[in-house]
Inverse folding.
């Protein structure tokens, strides 16, 4: 008897949870699959993060994660890692979609790299991330691929030669100055496009496409910005 009662109570409880889930699901569908929203209440308290960020590395002063100017084409994206995947596809033998944790399951590297925006400001940040070369091992890139096109949650895109990525051992960062990237800074992943101007440092990466279109032009490149984007041409 006792057992039956318990089960009954549990069912009732489950129904309430189910109802809540349904409401949540419907609102997620309504507000765009829950991968992003414009709710300002989800804004990070960046000032709070400055209390825990690393300010110096090997004797070198670092910039703060508040020293960036937020001027992304559609404002910050709020990505939910419960539904997020990073897809690597295009000219590959084995396209893959990795969860956030699966990406983080790779060897991690740290490096101080400066981001220079064409607007004239720059920041020295300690980045922690995963080598693109390591991620590429799983997909088996086809011979004809010479270009890597990065796509983002906000519709932004940019590209780099595959050779550049391999030669310079470029990485995607998940941490900056020792803290997990806040949404405003590109959570879950930002490309650390070392020696390239800020518009190559794509944030909120969702898809990495191997291509043979060496002339592909990303968002700012289409609008007249140099496709090479070298900091020191
Ligand atoms: N997805 C996405 N990534 C982006 C941008 C953007 O608008 N969307 N802006 C780029 C530019 S111009 C710069 S300078 C760097 C740093 O921008 P932030 O200061 O807004 O973080 O992010 C780059 N990555
Ligand atoms: Mo920029």
């Amino acid at each position: 008897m006792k057992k039956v009662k318990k089960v009954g109570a549990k069912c009732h409880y489950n129904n309430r949870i189910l109802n809540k889930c349904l409401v949540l699901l419907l609102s997620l569908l309504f507000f765009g699959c829950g991968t992003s929203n414009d709710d300002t209440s989800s804004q990070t308290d960046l000032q709070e993060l400055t209390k825990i960020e690393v300010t110096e590395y090997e004797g070198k002063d670092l910039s703060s994660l508040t020293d960036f100017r937020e001027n992304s084409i559609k404002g910050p994206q709020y990505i939910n890692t419960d539904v997020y995947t990073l897809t690597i596809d295009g000219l590959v033998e084995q396209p893959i979609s990795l969860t956030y944790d699966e990406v983080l399951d790779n060897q991690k590297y740290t490096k101080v790299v400066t981001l220079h925006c064409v607007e004239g400001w720059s920041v020295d940040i300690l980045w922690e991330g995963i080598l693109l070369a390591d991620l590429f091992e799983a997909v088996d890139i086809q011979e004809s691929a010479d270009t890597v096109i990065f796509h983002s949650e906000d519709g932004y895109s940019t590209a780099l030669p595959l050779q550049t990525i391999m030669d310079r051992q470029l990485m995607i960062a998940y941490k900056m100055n020792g803290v997990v990237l806040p949404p405003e800074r590109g959570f879950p992943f930002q490309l650390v496009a070392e020696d390239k101007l800020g518009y190559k440092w794509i944030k909120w990466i969702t898809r990495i496409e191997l291509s043979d279109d060496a002339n592909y032009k990303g968002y700012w490149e289409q609008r007249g910005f140099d496709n090479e984007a070298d900091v020191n041409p």
User: Anything to note?
Assistant: The first helix runs from residue 2 to 30.
